């Protein structure tokens, strides 16, 4: 159990710790010379029950309250001291407020210097303390009187602390590892050492960790837990870690950094929080109010962005957004304290509820519902509530990371809630079973209605479909939900379009007959430089208008793409050309290539090669820089799955990349209308 002292300057905190443990808390020359605690002091008390009590002695001077907050953030048990001959003082009030704001619910109030006053004075001080703690986390705490000089009451107090430690028991260590750094120093022959309280999880010698927010990588060379050499440290332990790494030095580590599991490294500078303003504040908190934010051992400048229409009055509790001057490493539901920018008074505090809030649309009903869900401390209850709030989907990985949950805890949540997940292990999206059933049914109904109204179209655009469905998932969630829906085989994903698997775009009987005569002209060896509309019209003896109209219908069906004006390519050919561009890009330096590179592979002339690349440019498939181009990997599925196992060219070369490499991230197959893009075309004369 970690015990933290609190109380006004010169109220006997350090003397009390020494009387209990025999260890001098003040360790700095300045502290001994001035007789006050400036920095955190530490002492340990082994017990006969096999427990070790760790004491954090904090400064009582108002100038060092920020250090007191750093020490109080990792404690299990508060020991508030009040001198019998001095009574309640300003830092007594402030330290009690900090204990209350940090949610430290276990503690005891110790009246020190019992030997310097009378029984009547002790009774009055005890009564004042009881009145002071009403409404705080220490309202039911016992009040005891001791003398560190005579030893009166010390043994009884020590026994109370041991009993409290036994009742608290072991901290659960199933979360991922986090340790808040309050000191960093170098020891001769050992190297860099950091100390702090383990906030969650477990660490072992040899483990790799990250320093956050800097992101430096380190390895744990050795561990001291509760002031003893150990092979591991766990949640609730006071630990010293000997860290080693290429960039690890004393100067690279700062008080307020967090040593953590590498999976948790995701610093943030914008946090939604529940904030309580102390009743003794004289003025309401207005929009963009500047503050000093204290979290763990970190102290950072920040501003308060109000999520309501009015300033926050003294004594009120409400949701706010904290916008930080610099990013910090945090977790939900960590506690925090805010003080004024001068560092003279504590204003309030609360807990973090969302580490990735939006900067805009912060007051919408949807965000209010999300914040209400995230306010719940219990991870399973919070996850369940989020599934019931818009957008009715949760990124499992982000949720687990921001709450420092272990894989075991995540699996327990999944099992208990019977959720449906889709996506990758790195970015799995979860919805409730009810939400998924509604989504899947409405998706099929929407597609069926669209096909009935538009029988000649390939399918419906993804974004248009997303906006038609309820619940309305976010774009990323919708994308992976479609992948999940396609696994049933009832839904087909054709690049940017979605259709029922049973749907095929249909033409009228006359148009179908005409298309049967046009399609072969676009395939075969000339597929990379097919004839234009006017040439085709001449060959099949139709008007240009009719041929152009039919191509527009074929384009809507997803059979062809208009590369340039009146110049149409079969969709399969477009996929093959894209596969060739991918192969060229992979073989080129830094992935860049020219129009000449594509021309040489396709043997279709510079003009047509440029038209093809400009077409890809317009659709964001290629990115142009001067005369050079590179591929946009996020748009390679725009024209559906690449269906050719190799990119054949008239020059005899082929792409070494197999079909699986080109498969669309949607796992779909294109609709080509039943025509083979390699069908040999009849001899055709072209007008130039």
Automatic annotation (TrEMBL):
The keyword Nucleotide-binding applies. GO terms for biological process: selenocysteine incorporation. Residues 679-688 have a biased composition (Pro residues). GO terms for molecular function: adenylylsulfate kinase activity; GTP binding; GTPase activity; RNA binding; translation elongation factor activity. Signal peptide: none annotated. It holds the Pfam family Beta-barrel_SelB. Residues 646-688 are annotated as: Disordered. Its main location: cytoplasm. GO terms for cellular component: cytoplasm. Keywords: Cytoplasm, Elongation factor, GTP-binding, Nucleotide-binding, Protein biosynthesis. It is found in: Cytoplasm. This is Selenocysteine-specific elongation factor. It comes from Hyphomicrobium denitrificans 1NES1. The lineage of its organism: Bacteria, Pseudomonadati, Pseudomonadota, Alphaproteobacteria, Hyphomicrobiales.
């Amino acid at each position: 159990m970690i015990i933290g002292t609190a109380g006004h300057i010169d109220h006997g905190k350090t003397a009390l710790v020494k009387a209990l443990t025999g260890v001098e808390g003040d360790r700095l020359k300045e502290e001994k010379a001035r007789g006050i605690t400036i920095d955190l002091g530490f002492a340990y008390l082994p017990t006969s029950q096999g427990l070790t009590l760790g004491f954090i002695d904090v400064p009582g001077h108002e100038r060092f309250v920020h250090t007191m907050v750093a020490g109080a953030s990792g404690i299990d048990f508060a020991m508030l001291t009040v001198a019998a001959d001095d009574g309640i003082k300003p830092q007594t009030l402030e330290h009690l407020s900090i204990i209350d704001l940090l949610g430290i619910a276990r503690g005891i109030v110790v009246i020190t210097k019992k030997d310097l006053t009378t029984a009547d004075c002790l009774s009055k001080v005890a009564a004042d303390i009881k009145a002071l703690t009403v409404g705080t986390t220490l309202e039911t705490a016992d009040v005891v009187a001791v003398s560190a000089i005579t030893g009166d009451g010390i043994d009884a107090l020590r026994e109370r602390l041991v009993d409290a430690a036994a009742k608290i028991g072991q901290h659960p260590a199933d979360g991922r590892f986090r340790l808040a750094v309050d000191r960093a120093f170098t020891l001769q022959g050992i190297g860099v050492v950091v100390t702090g309280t383990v906030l969650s999880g477990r660490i072992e010698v040899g483990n790799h960790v990250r320093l956050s927010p800097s992101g430096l990588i380190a390895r744990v060379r050795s561990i001291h837990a509760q002031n003893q050499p150990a092979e591991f440290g766990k949640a609730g332990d006071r630990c010293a870690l000997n860290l080693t790494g290429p960039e690890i030095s004393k100067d690279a580590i700062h008080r307020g950094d967090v040593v953590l599991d590498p999976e948790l490294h995701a610093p943030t500078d914008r946090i939604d929080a529940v904030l309580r303003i102390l009743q003794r504040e004289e003025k309401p908190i207005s929009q963009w109010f500047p503050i000093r934010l204290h979290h763990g051992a970190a102290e950072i400048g920040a501003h308060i962005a109000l999520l309501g229409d009015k300033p926050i009055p003294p004594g009120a509790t409400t949701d706010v957004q904290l916008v930080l001057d610099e990013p910090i490493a945090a977790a939900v539901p960590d506690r925090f304290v805010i003080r004024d920018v001068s560092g003279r008074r504590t204003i309030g505090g609360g807990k973090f509820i969302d580490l990735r809030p939006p900067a805009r649309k912060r007051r919408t009903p949807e965000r209010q519902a999300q914040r209400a869900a995230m306010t719940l401390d219990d991870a399973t209850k919070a996850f369940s509530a989020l599934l019931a709030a818009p957008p009715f989907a949760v990124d499992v990985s982000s949720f687990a990371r921001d709450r420092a949950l272990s894989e075991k805890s995540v699996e327990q949540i999944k099992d208990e809630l019977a959720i449906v997940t889709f996506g990758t292990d790195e970015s799995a999206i979860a919805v409730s079973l009810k939400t998924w059933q509604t989504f899947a049914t409405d998706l099929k109904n929407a597609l069926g209605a669209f096909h009935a109204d538009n029988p000649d179209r390939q399918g419906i655009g993804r974004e248009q479909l997303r906006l038609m469905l309820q619940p309305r998932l976010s774009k990323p969630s919708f994308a992976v939900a479609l992948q999940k829906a396609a696994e049933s085989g009832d839904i087909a994903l054709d690049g940017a379009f979605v259709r029922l698997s049973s749907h095929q775009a249909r033409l009228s009987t006359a148009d179908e007959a005409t298309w049967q005569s046009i399609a072969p002209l676009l395939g075969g060896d000339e597929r990379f430089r097919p004839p234009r509309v006017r040439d085709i019209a001449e060959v099949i003896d139709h008007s240009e208008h009719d041929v152009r109209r039919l191509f527009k219908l074929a384009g809507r069906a997803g059979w062809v793409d208009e590369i340039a004006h009146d110049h149409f390519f079969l969709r399969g050919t477009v996929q093959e050309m894209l596969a060739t561009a991918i192969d060229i890009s992979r073989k080129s330096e830094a992935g860049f290539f020219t129009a000449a590179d594509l021309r040489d592979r396709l043997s279709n002339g510079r003009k047509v090669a440029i038209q093809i690349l400009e077409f890809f440019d317009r659709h964001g498939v290629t990115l142009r820089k001067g005369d050079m181009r590179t591929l946009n990997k996020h748009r390679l599925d725009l024209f559906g799955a690449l269906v050719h196992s190799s990119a054949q060219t008239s020059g005899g070369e082929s792409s070494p990349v197999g079909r699986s490499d080109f498969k669309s991230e949607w796992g779909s197959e294109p609709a080509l209308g039943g025509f083979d893009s390699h069908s040999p075309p009849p001899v055709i004369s072209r007008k130039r």
